[in-house]
Amino acid sequence: MWVQTAGPEPALNQFGGHYKMIRKNYLLILLLILGVTLVVASAVSAADELEIFAGQDKTVRVNTPLEFNDALINKPNPLDPDRTYTFSWDFDNKKNTDLDTPPIFDNDAESNERFTEWTYHIPGVYIVTLTVEDGFNTVKDTLQVTVKANEPPEIHVNSTESAFKDVEHIFYGDATDDNAPPHLLRWHWEFGDGESSDDAPPVRHVYGSVRGYQVKVRVTDPDNDYSVFTIFLNVVEKPGEMGSLYPIKDG
Hints:
Elements: H1 9-48, E1 51-53, E2 58-61, E3 65-68, E4 72-75, E5 86-90, E6 110-111, E7 116-119, E8 124-133, E9 138-148, E10 154-156, E11 160-164, E12 169-171, E13 174-176, E14 186-190, E15 196-197, E16 203-205, E17 212-220, E18 226-236
Parallel strand pairs: 2-9, 11-18
Antiparallel strand pairs: 1-4, 3-7, 5-6, 5-8, 8-9, 10-13, 12-16, 14-15, 14-17, 17-18
């Protein structure tokens, strides 16, 4: 009678068990790789969406603070709360350029605030660069700043006036300045008779001699730019209590 022995079956079962385990681990590894790939692809895709706007071109006078307050992150919208966005401004697009007074030659004129300001002391046209990083990507955008030289104040007074001797005369006037409000302008009057005043108009003065005078008016702004204007004043005798600077015609 022939009897079949069970010699190789345990070995075969053992091999099959190892094969199943290897296949299971292989599938787990594939799933892990696929998951990492999806995460990386998602991160790269999101990073590619970073888009910024540095702001509109700007014009400013020298020595006047200029605000950069319209920078935007256009994408992503809304911002990803899991990322940190960093900002870097370069106000002249050059390295080690002197934009300060007194000179600071190792200052690259930069700021790391999203909304910031800068004061230019030298007239010219500057290319301003905003750089934004989100941990995955770095993007840049630029705008142009035109810095104009400061114009001196413009004085508004009469070019000629008349006054009576020994009678208080009132000088009226005004001044405008692109860079400063009226109360910051400094006035100085030279009345032509050795007297002077630093008052803003209206200004009162009495002349003791009959003759012509050149009254010098100087107005200075906070940047020490100034204008000078000359008033030609004619001082005459007062004819009487009913006298007038203007002739009265009969009839």
